[in-house]
Amino acid sequence: MSISLAKKKDFNEIIKFIKENYVTDHILVTNKKLFDDFYKNNKNYNILLYKDGVTISSILGFVNYSKYSKKNKDQITWLALWISKKNTFASGFKLIKHLEKKFKNNNIIGLGLTDTAVKLLSLIGYKIKILNHYYILNENFKTYKIIISPKKNKYRKKNLNFLFKKLTINDFKKINISNRNNYKNSKYYINKYYKNKFYSYDFYYIQKTNNSDYLILITRKISLKKTYVLRIIEIIGQINTLKYSYYAIQNLLYLNKAEYIDCLNYGISKDIFISSGFNDVQNGTIVPNYFEPFKPKSKKIYFAYKDNKYIEKKLNIFKGDADQERPNIL
Length: 330
Known about the structure:
Blueprint: E1 2-7, H1 11-21, H2 27-30, H3 32-39, E2 40-41, E3 44-52, E4 55-63, E5 76-84, H4 89-102, E6 107-111, H5 115-123, E7 126-130, E8 132-137, E9 162-167, H6 169-173, H7 186-194, E10 202-208, E11 214-224, E12 227-237, H8 246-256, E13 258-266, H9 270-275, E14 279-280, E15 290-291, E16 294-295, E17 302-306, H10 309-314, E18 317-318
Parallel strand pairs: 5-6, 12-13
Antiparallel strand pairs: 1-3, 2-3, 3-4, 4-5, 6-17, 7-17, 8-13, 8-14, 9-10, 10-11, 11-12, 13-18, 15-16
């Protein structure tokens, strides 16, 4: 038995393992550029291998944000690509324990978990929670093709005095970002989103007139069924500004001809979202989470972490975290 960090020479063996034990045509199997972009780290891959002799029994991928900015101080190591051969879950648990020791000063979090991963991580002491899901409808739409049985917007405050601007990369570089996630710096956002090799992201700056507080929404536009939807991937800035952003968001929806905008988050108070004009996704309303391929149903996004005070008080998780913005179709 051995546990080691994967090297370049292990690539073909890893791909073969994924084919035989997970999905034969998985995007990471068919697209090496994508595989390298998410897991390559100099001469190694951010993947732990558990081997019985020379044969892989389990693999465990992980994501550290220092890959986007060397100045980033990693506080979280995100689980990704946790696969074991049938009836060898013990080896998978050993990889988790090894990762915990390797990054003993970091919080280990799994995001976007399968039902099996939820059960297994709960067995070894991880706390399971669900990302909250919110949406705002475009008021100019009378019918909706993607969202099903939505609630009408309830926002009634009249605040039309705001600065609204789409930020270029040079605009963004000039901003001294204030962020609740202080382990994410400007280079992280630039390298992960502005310079993304697979998706196109937009940064929208919102500021209430006569107030220095601001908000930046990082969004991705999706085209489907001859319509568009917008997804908030991350939020930067003073989150209370969201309370005054409803009409700026309506402007954003209008400019993008999108029928709604949604946001997945854990860490920001539900009251802030609701008072900002968002509805939370409840029974009867379907706001799809999967678009590659498209699945017209709501799906809860689970995450798991070791229970501690830092997680409960400071963690702020978005759709953009871990590997959740990895394409499934290219």
